[in-house]
Amino acid sequence: MRTRSVLVALVLQLLLLCASTTIMADPRSNTLFVSCSKDLEHNTTAYVPNFLNTMDNISNQVRTDQFGLSVKGSGPDSSYALAQCYGDLSTLDCVLCYAEARTLLPQCFPFNGGRLFLDGCFMRGENYSFFDEIYGWPDRINCTNSAPKSSAFAALARQVVGRLVMDASGSSGRFSRAAVTAGNESVYGLANCWRTVNASRCRECLTNASAALLGCLPNSGGRAMYTGCFLRFSDTDFLNNYSNGGGKVSKAVLIAAVVSTTSFAIIAIVIGTYLWKQKKIADKRKASVEKIEPKLLNSNLHFTYSALEKATGNFNSNDKLGQGGFGTVYKGVLADGREIAVKRLFFNNRHRVADFYNEVNMISSIEHKNLVRLLGCSCNGPESLLVYEYLPNKSLDGFIFDPVRARQLNWEKRMDIIVGTAEGLVYLHENSVIKIIHRDIKASNILLDSKFRAKISDFGLARSFEEDKSHISTAVAGTLGYMSPEYLAHGLLTEKVDVYSFGVLLLEIVSGVQNRKAGEEYTESLLTTAWKRFQSDTVHEMIDTNMMAAYNTHDRYTVTREACRVVHVGLLCTQEASALRPSMKRALEMLLRRDESLAPPSHPPFMDETRMEFNDNFDSSSCLVCPSGSSGASISHSSFYPR
Ligand SMILES: *[C@@H]1O[C@H](CO)[C@@H](O)[C@H](O)[C@H]1NC(C)=O
Ligand SMILES: *[C@@H]1O[C@H](CO)[C@@H](O)[C@H](O)[C@H]1NC(C)=O
Ligand SMILES: *[C@@H]1O[C@H](CO)[C@@H](O)[C@H](O)[C@H]1NC(C)=O
Ligand SMILES: *[C@@H]1O[C@H](CO)[C@@H](O)[C@H](O)[C@H]1NC(C)=O
Ligand SMILES: *[C@@H]1O[C@H](CO)[C@@H](O)[C@H](O)[C@H]1NC(C)=O
Ligand SMILES: *[C@@H]1O[C@H](CO)[C@@H](O)[C@H](O)[C@H]1NC(C)=O
Ligand SMILES: *[C@@H]1O[C@H](CO)[C@@H](O)[C@H](O)[C@H]1NC(C)=O
Ligand SMILES: *[C@@H]1O[C@H](CO)[C@@H](O)[C@H](O)[C@H]1NC(C)=O
Ligand SMILES: CC(=O)N[C@H]1CO[C@H](CO)[C@@H](O)[C@@H]1O
């Protein structure tokens, strides 16, 4: 009898464990709709730090509350923002959905704001207080494409949607969910207003939205995306079995919890461990600041703020070399005549400063011919400054994407840049004392010295493997167009993220075309073009004509052959499955051993948001413009990719 009840308890706990794993089931982080504001931002220098601050603040709130609200600055450059997950997402799923939204919002720049509807969360930023708005011009309904449903379904849907509206506006979390079955028809739905909208306004928003949404019937479902609320119904169960923010606790969790109180202990331990880990990471960051500071101040890595102010002529805008994601770079000349580049960081708060010390401490110990040397920093002035060696020829993007300057980079030089960049990355991944994932490899981060040798710059985003290995990072940083699908969607960070970006870079160097320029998101990406050309044996058509013009017929043939091979390696590096991408070391070997055969890229690479259908089983032996080396799948996959 006793063993039996123990058994029953065990089974119940097992069931609960299953339930708690489905709690992390689906962040629904697919993008439904992005709408950028119509006004351009007013003053970049004032706006960007406010924006970054707001995002930081919201990230911290979302991690505990599934909701964040922040205001930074004043006047036309102020940054108001809000993020909220729908009430059926668990904390972890919410963080995942938010991480995706967080990478999308900067796409609206230089417009001063935008609204993002993901299937699991909402985010909005503006330069004014919009928190009680419920209507706006981008409000819309999106109906599911389907065959018409029965009139019984339509009647049930009307009833369910009506109830959702009443329940959500009456609940403290402004959220409600429903799963109702009548006869052989089922309707699932959720309604959510932003927490800044009061009950009566919430009801108004949802009432208006529901009236429009029910116009989708007799289709099987639809979504209403309004400035102040979100409403969805469907004939399939898209809901997560988790509830927060005043909604109803899902039945499965409720029953299990009532029957077995020990289950609470399990939940408590799981949540406790999670919070404890988070706190430990935060503590570690804090501790590292306090530990490094005195060491740095006494070392020759330290520059005084006034010396750097003087060297750059008070950060004279004529000496501005460029602007990166984390700061503006100026040219400077020190009192002893040394030329330097000074990076003036946007941020200056505690958390960011920790990263900053991290960068200085880590990179100053790293030296390689293909990495920009960090000479030191100014850490105790009014701003955080990094001091780098100065490179006269600026960055690769200034050459390959410019029709005139592109001619200065013939194929031999481009090949040297490719190999140099690969060597620098191999060093970061495999040889240095601390392994580093760069995270932001792109043409503008490849600087060129006076002999056009490649030097990788901007380690601002680099972290050591130890702390962040495959860790879900809420501060997903990087540049769209170069970001691998797993990093973009899930913040999953491995060295394969750099391999992917490197692959994109290879295609850009060969073609002289930038992968995806801001504001042109719906044009075909370079990756798509390369993949199609590879399949139709027309890779030679994408080679930069500005570069080819200088070659005679015979040399053209050689260059075409090599460029084709580089495109092939680029496609291998950008395969959707990160496990199939080669390591940087392997990619370098492929580039150097020019007569080794390469396997065909086995999976279509990630292409924009929509996954496109491609013919996977093309005949690789017919790759006419890649006469030797590039074609043929003589090497099996297992020997090809070291495990
Ligand atoms: C932009 O803002 C910065 C910092 O507040 C200020 O120094 C600068 O003068 C402003 N520029 C313009 C064009 O208003
Ligand atoms: C975040 O923003 C909110 C609202 O503007 C503010 O009350 C709060 O103090 C901020 N928190 C931090 C850590 O800056
Ligand atoms: C927001 O920015 C726009 C464009 O820069 C400006 O015209 C407007 O006055 C700003 N709004 C507020 C409330 O400052
Ligand atoms: C509706 O949603 C589908 C799939 O999410 C999308 O392809 C389509 O463009 C959307 N339509 C509108 C009008 O937003
Ligand atoms: C439910 O039953 C009705 C009639 O009994 C039928 O017309 C309808 O197709 C059924 N729906 C489903 C989803 O099976
Ligand atoms: C709700 O907010 C609106 C405007 O945002 C206001 O006019 C109304 O009085 C508020 N209602 C309640 C009950 O607070
Ligand atoms: C719904 O929104 C439209 C457009 O903003 C507005 O004209 C209408 O009065 C609203 N209807 C209700 C019932 O609030
Ligand atoms: C939620 O739980 C119900 C059973 O209570 C199950 O049928 C359904 O598939 C679950 N939904 C999800 C999304 O896990
Ligand atoms: C385009 C460009 O700036 N090229 C320069 C690269 O560096 C060498 C040496 O400093 C200069 O001579 C080139 O003009």
List keywords for this structure.
Killer Toxin P4, Chain A, alpha+beta, 15% strand, Phosphorylase Kinase, domain 1, binds 2-acetamido-2-deoxy-beta-D-glucopyranose, 5-stranded antiparallel beta sheet, disordered C terminus, 40% helix, 643 residues
How much strand? 15-25%
Enumerate the distinct ligands: 2-acetamido-2-deoxy-beta-D-glucopyranose
Which consecutive residue ranges, at least 5 long each, have pLDDT under 50?
1-24, 244-292, 463-478, 517-522, 606-643
Overall pLDDT score: 75
Radius of gyration equals 27 Å
For the termini, the CA-CA separation is 51 Å
Which fold name fills CATH's third level, the topology of the largest domain?
Transferase(Phosphotransferase), domain 1
What count of structural domains? 4
User: Under the CATH scheme, which architecture of the largest domain would be assigned?
Assistant: Orthogonal Bundle
Strand tally is 19
Please give the order of strands in the largest beta sheet.
1-4-5-3-2
Derived structural class: alpha+beta
* CATH H-tier superfamily of the largest domain: Transferase(Phosphotransferase) domain 1
| Number of helices in the DSSP assignment | 19
The proportion of residues forming helix, as a percent range, comes to: 25-40%
What is the CATH C-level name of the largest domain? Mainly Alpha
Tertiary shape: globular
- Major beta sheet summary: 5 strands, antiparallel
